[in-house]
What we know:
CATH topology of the largest domain: Lipocalin
Number of helices: 5
Number of strands: 12
CATH architecture of the largest domain: Beta Barrel
Distance between the termini: 120 Å
Strand content: 25-35%
Largest sheet: 12 strands, antiparallel
Mean pLDDT: 81
Structural class: alpha+beta
Number of domains: 2
CATH superfamily of the largest domain: Lipid/polyisoprenoid-binding, YceI-like
Order of helices and strands: HHHEEEEEEEHEEEEHE
Low-confidence stretches: 32-46, 72-99
Amino acid sequence: MQYQYRSVSFPNEKRHRQERMIFSIVSFVIGAIVGGVVGVFIFIRITGGSAAPSQAISAPELSLADFSTPTAVEDTQEVIEVNNEVSPTAESEVANVQASSSSLPPQLYRIVPAESEARFSVYETFPEGTAIGRTSEIAGDFIIDFANPSNSQLGTIRINLRTLATDDPDRDQSIRCCVLLTARPENEFTDFVPLSISGLPEQVDIGQIVNFQVTGNITLRGITAPITFDVMLTILSEDEISGLASATVLRSDFGILNDADNGFDYHGVAEAVNLEFAFVARPVQ
């Protein structure tokens, strides 16, 4: 008796082939995702560069040689003459004001980077919390006319954005590479150029806290936009001034993480960004 054999395809074999095919597809997709993520990290590491500044921080300097207050002096003299004719009491009061003002001549101050800080803060949803970046690379000059504060001058405030540091080195690399683009030489520094000062008192004395506003232009990523800082200045002594300037800007005004530019709709970074300059300044001898 002869037997004939035929190959039989068992259902288990077919299922195993399908499982192997699905496994291969899933492995390919996972590999592509992992490879893409690794590629992004490598790209950020390469293009993010170093946080080291290319040069020491400095800003355009002001000079007392170019500063004068003729109007303030003339007005003071006229007031004294008028009040002298009115009454001895008024004469005494004006004399006291004049003595106080004359003891505090206009003074040029320069920000001390080692004791100062420029910072930003912005809310993030991933990871959830507030990201804060800081740098002590800030410089600038200002002149205070104690007798006539409206005659005071504020120079350009310069900050090295490349040196901003948060609590996450990977975030810092991303900021330099793809957010503020500060790895590029043209974006390393930003200048705040003041245009007007408002809200100053009629006179400033030692120990006084002065609140006012400064409006000017600031440039980020090559885009310049107006900004107004609320400033609180503390006259600690004739030899030391401290201050805090704060403002809020919209990141989209500077093309930061705009959806049309970065190619995705969600990045987890809030629109409003808080900026602060906390500084200590001392006289320029």
